[in-house]
């Protein structure tokens, strides 16, 4: 809780720690309300710190029981302790500090530090949770070797897990308790500490690393859920192998454990040797998980595993460098999924997510650089910008340096910085050195916020046989950055000839272009020679640069690219660009402009037998309402956006009825469910076809959808058909929703889907429905997954109903945020960040949103987390 505005922390103020910790010995005796923690820290003055500085250790709500220096109880006056800080002025430059604290894990509803979830003890320490367990220099540049003894009641917590390798364990005679001692030989920052104690079932696995080290794998789940951990185990083993082949990185301990818990603020956490996961990203069975769930599990298992090198062996010097581990690790997990599945389809899905989340963030009041320079609450910087744009920056680096140069830079980074707490400068220096390239200009991507806009105009000179591209780049102002400098933008492109083949790219001075142009200035022209016929420019292929591309391509050009570009991403992008043009005009004019070209392009894609079904499903799904709103940019009326999208859906459904019917029949996937990408693609295209076929809402169409719902033998089809029905206020919808509830009432992760779907229905009754759903016993305000599924889905996945013209959606969210804030500030501030788009709304809604945000900002006793979001959103 704060009494004043949260204080800013600045990158420019970074100083090395005054004291270091060589070893940490923890003795933790677990108890539901009185857990005892004895910490023995071997402290040593840092020669690089400030001479004579006292020892200042972080705490957060700690209860100090006892304190000893070099084995002698500390007398009052020798130290100064408060719940949030411990200050000592020792005479020696090296000493052993012993501190005992007393914790109440059951009362910990913030889910930060040591807490309980379904009876299990678990921890979350990133970024600043370790200080809720014991006093410590809780910053990521203090690396220590940890030994952890955990003790607990044997019946309540038969499983005791820690970081590193198990040294010994056994019963404590005559007490009903037992213990385990874990030792992690790799020095690590406190945010990677973890322990787990509970009644959990182990799903075992095994892996032998490339150099022959055997590793015991374990996935720990709630008793009875073992049969849902198989896919996660498989994904883990594939991730371990992939990191060896793709990056030369081997695992470095004898055990690797994953624990699935049901109360977790984020997706998962990469604690050394002991990953803790939101169970939503571990548990899957054909009956309970969709294809999207399987893909997410694969990606997040890989992500946390890959952190072992990018995050753990090499960690971050300070939290400003968060993207050093997160952006890079997202890039690595994206590459892994691309290799395991379809590369183009993965790229399309990633860019869709980037635009839906990061571009939106970048265009509003919460915009910040990939590496921020100031924060008031670091928990609010686990954002799409740090993660997703952070990954795009790494991808752009690779586009500039090429495969071999990129790998050489990564190899140097691992070799040079293993064991370090590093910075973005350290990272970039490795690539500069390995390739001999100056990356000073490129580095601006980390510091400058906002999405650059790239205007590209093409002109063909038939007589000269030249094609000229005029490129103008600009980045709109963002909070704290009124003016912007030009960036180094890797623009992948092709000039497509009339027969659909790429023409050779040769600049006027004779230099050949290997598919990527480097745009470096505000205004630049590129002239290609030897161009015999007028080509169509295919720009930013594969989304090589994270920019808003504005081209002068005609409708005919886009139709041509959608059919012929050899870059699958740009085939997708061409048809999406056609749709965006229509939707923007449709929303502005209240009626859909002529759209025969889009229908024609869509028909061709649908009927192209050579195309991957998963690709077609992506290409034929219209841009979402949030995405259209961002494209419009200002004065957005969500109802007009919704109406335009609805009209275009109707037009597509009408024009392509036969095609969708044929596709629907052809995409039947008989046989038992398999989660692989090819089968998932067929299911996706089949459900999309059903969705279009159901658009007319006739009794026949609804009955067909309901029949498919009933016949489904896996969650992908069952939930897919339920989502189709959810769009139509009808008896069929009611029947299917009721049936789904009865079937899965006892399965919280599946109920989340049901909650989330209803929260996203674009009808005036939805807000009342959400209020009613909150009263059901399956809902709980203390479980983050439930809250996000219901309240989060309304706030971020239902633009018309969150932005109701009467402001009731905003008032509702504010009530939930204020109620939650006392309990779980991180969850509350995440929900509140749904207001990040308020400034793009038309004036009436914007005024209501502003009033709602003010109410939050003015509420007494706000957490730093919520206060920070409210003030920045208003800022
Ligand atoms: N490092 C984790 C991941 O991305 C995220 C943990 C963030 N947790 C938090 N409470 N902010 O894999
Ligand atoms: Zn991560």
UniProtKB/TrEMBL annotation:
EC numbers, comma separated: 3.4.11.2
Highest taxon of the lineage: Bacteria
The keyword Ribosomal protein belongs to this UniProt entry's keyword annotation: no
Residues in Peptidase M1 alanyl aminopeptidase Ig-like fold domain copies: 450-551
InterPro entries xrefs: Aminopeptidase_N-like_N, Aminopeptidase_N-like_N_sf, PepN_Ig-like_sf, Peptidase_M1, Peptidase_M1_dom, Peptidase_M1_pepN, Peptidase_M1_pepN_C, Peptidase_M1_pepN_C_sf
GO molecular function: alanyl aminopeptidase activity; metallopeptidase activity; zinc ion binding
Record-given protein name: Aminopeptidase N
Organism: Aquabacter spiritensis
Taxonomic lineage: Bacteria, Pseudomonadati, Pseudomonadota, Alphaproteobacteria, Hyphomicrobiales
């Amino acid at each position: 809780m704060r009494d004043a505005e949260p204080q800013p922390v600045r990158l420019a103020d970074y100083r090395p720690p005054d004291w270091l910790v060589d070893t940490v010995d923890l003795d933790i005796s677990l108890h539901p309300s009185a857990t005892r923690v004895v910490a023995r820290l071997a402290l040593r003055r840092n020669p690089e710190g400030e001479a004579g500085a006292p020892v200042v250790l972080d705490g957060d709500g700690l209860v100090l029981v006892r304190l000893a220096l070099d084995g002698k109880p500390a007398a009052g006056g020798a130290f100064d302790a408060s719940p949030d800080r411990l200050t000592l002025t020792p005479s020696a430059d090296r000493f052993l500090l012993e501190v005992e604290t007393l914790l109440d894990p059951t009362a910990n509803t913030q889910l930060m530090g040591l807490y309980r979830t379904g009876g299990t003890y678990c921890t979350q320490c990133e970024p600043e949770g370790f200080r809720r367990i014991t006093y410590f220099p809780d910053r990521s540049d203090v690396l220590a070797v940890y030994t952890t003894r955990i003790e607990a009641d044997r019946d309540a917590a038969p499983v005791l897990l820690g970081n590193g390798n198990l040294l010994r364990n056994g019963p404590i005679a005559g007490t009903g308790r037992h213990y385990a001692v874990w030792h992690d030989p790799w020095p690590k920052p406190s945010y990677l500490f973890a322990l787990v104690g509970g009644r959990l079932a182990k799903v075992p696995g095994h892996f032998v690393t490339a150099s022959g080290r055997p590793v015991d794998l374990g996935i720990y789940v709630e008793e009875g859920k073992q049969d849902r951990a198989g896919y996660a185990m498989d994904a883990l083993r594939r991730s371990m192998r992939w990191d060896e082949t793709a990056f030369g990185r081997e695992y470095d301990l004898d055990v690797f454990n994953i624990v699935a818990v049901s109360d977790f603020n984020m997706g998962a956490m990469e604690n050394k040797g002991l990953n803790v996961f939101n169970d939503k990203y571990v548990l899957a069975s054909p009956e309970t998980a969709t294809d999207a769930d399987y893909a997410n599990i694969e990606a997040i298992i890989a992500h946390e595993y890959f952190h072992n090198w990018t995050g753990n062996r090499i960690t971050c010097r300070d939290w400003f460098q968060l993207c050093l581990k997160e952006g890079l690790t997202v890039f690595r997990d994206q590459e892994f999924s691309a290799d395991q599945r379809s590369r183009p389809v993965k790229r399309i899905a990633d860019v869709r997510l980037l635009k839906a989340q990061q571009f939106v963030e970048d265009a509003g009041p919460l915009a910040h650089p990939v590496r921020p320079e100031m924060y008031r609450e670091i928990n609010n910087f686990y954002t799409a910008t740090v993660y997703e744009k952070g990954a795009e920056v790494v991808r752009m680096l690779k586009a500039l340096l090429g495969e071999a140069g990129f790998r050489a830079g990564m190899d140097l980074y691992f070799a040079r910085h293993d064991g370090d707490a590093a910075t973005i400068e350290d990272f970039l220096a490795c690539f500069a050195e390995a390739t001999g390239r100056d990356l000073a200009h490129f580095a601006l991507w980390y510091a400058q916020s906002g999405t650059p806009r790239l205007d590209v105009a093409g002109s063909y000179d038939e007589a000269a046989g030249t094609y000229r591209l005029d490129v103008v780049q600009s980045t709109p102002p963002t909070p704290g950055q009124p003016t912007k400098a030009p960036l180094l933008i890797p623009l992948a492109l092709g000039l497509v000839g009339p027969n659909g083949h790429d023409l050779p790219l040769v600049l006027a001075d004779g230099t050949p272009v290997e598919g990527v142009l480097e745009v470096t200035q505000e205004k630049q022209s590129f002239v290609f020679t030897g161009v015999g016929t007028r080509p169509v420019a295919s720009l930013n292929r594969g989304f090589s640069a994270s920019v808003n591309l504005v081209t002068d391509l005609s409708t005919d050009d886009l139709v041509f690219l959608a059919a012929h570009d050899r870059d699958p991403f740009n085939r997708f992008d061409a048809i999406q660009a056609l749709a965006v043009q229509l939707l923007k005009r449709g929303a502005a004019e209240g009626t859909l402009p002529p759209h025969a070209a889009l229908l024609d392009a869509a028909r061709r894609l649908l009927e192209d037998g050579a195309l991957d079904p998963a690709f077609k499903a992506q290409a034929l799904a219209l841009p979402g309402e949030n995405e259209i709103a961002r494209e419009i940019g200002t004065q957005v009326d969500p109802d007009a956006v919704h109406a335009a999208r609805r009209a275009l859906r109707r037009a597509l459904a009408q024009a392509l009825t036969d095609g969708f019917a044929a596709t629907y029949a052809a995409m039947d996937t008989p046989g038992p469910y398999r989660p692989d990408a090819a089968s998932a693609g067929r299911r996706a295209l089949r459900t999309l076809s059903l969705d279009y076929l159901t658009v007319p809402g006739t009794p026949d169409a609804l009955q067909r959808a309901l029949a498919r719902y009933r016949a489904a033998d896996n969650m992908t089809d069952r939930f897919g058909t339920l989502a189709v029905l959810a769009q139509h206020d009808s008896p069929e919808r009611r029947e299917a929703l009721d049936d789904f509830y009865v079937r899965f009432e006892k399965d919280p992760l599946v109920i989340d889907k049901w909650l989330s779907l209803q929260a996203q229905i674009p009808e005036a009754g939805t807000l009342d429905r959400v209020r009613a759903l909150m009263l059901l016993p399956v809902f709980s305000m203390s479980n983050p997954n439930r809250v996000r599924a219901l309240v989060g889905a309304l706030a971020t996945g239902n633009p018309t109903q969150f932005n109701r013209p009467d402001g009731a959606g905003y008032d509702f969210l504010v009530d939930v945020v204020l109620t939650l804030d006392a309990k779980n500030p991180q969850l509350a501030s995440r929900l509140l960040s749904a207001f990040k788009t308020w400034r793009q709304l038309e004036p009436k809604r914007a005024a209501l949103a502003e009033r709602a945000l003010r109410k939050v900002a003015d509420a007494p006793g706000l957490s730093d987390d919520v206060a920070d979001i409210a003030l920045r959103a208003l800022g």
